[in-house]
Write a structure and sequence with these properties.
The chain is of the alpha+beta class. Helices cover 35% and strands 36% of the residues. It has two helices and four strands. It has a four-stranded antiparallel beta sheet with strand order 1-2-3-4. A hairpin with a 2-residue loop joins strand 1 and strand 2. The protein starts with 5 loop residues before the first strand and ends with a helix. The mean pLDDT is 88.
Length: 105
């Protein structure tokens, strides 16, 4: 049975399709029978730009297990990226260090 249930997510980014890079503003996410993947059911994500008419898309179909593993990897990448960027922002800049040294003389 096909459910045709689609969740829409607002996105801000880019995707690379057959014509090159494109702007994306929407992800249509569904769990249903795939069009191409050799699976009974798949999580599908269509990345489109509705503002540009949604004529081009980048689509993926992955297994449920792959989707769950991807969720965990996305969370891990964001957490480690946030930690690295926070640490980088807390380090004094070279210019600030030079000013501190100059103020000693």
């Amino acid at each position: 049975m096909c459910s045709y249930i689609v969740e829409k997510a607002v996105m801000h980014g880019s995707a690379k399709g057959p014509s090159g890079w494109m702007r994306i503003d929407t992800a249509n996410v569904y769990y249903d029978h795939p069009f191409h993947a050799p699976l009974d059911h798949a999580l599908g994500i269509d990345f489109i730009c509705e503002a540009d008419g949604g004529r081009e898309r980048v689509a993926v179909e992955i297994s449920r297990e792959s989707a769950l593993a991807l969720i965990e990897k996305i969370k891990a990448a964001l957490a480690s990226g946030d930690a690295a960027h926070t640490a980088a922002c807390e380090r004094p800049s070279v210019a600030a260090s030079q000013r501190e040294v100059a103020s000693l003389f």
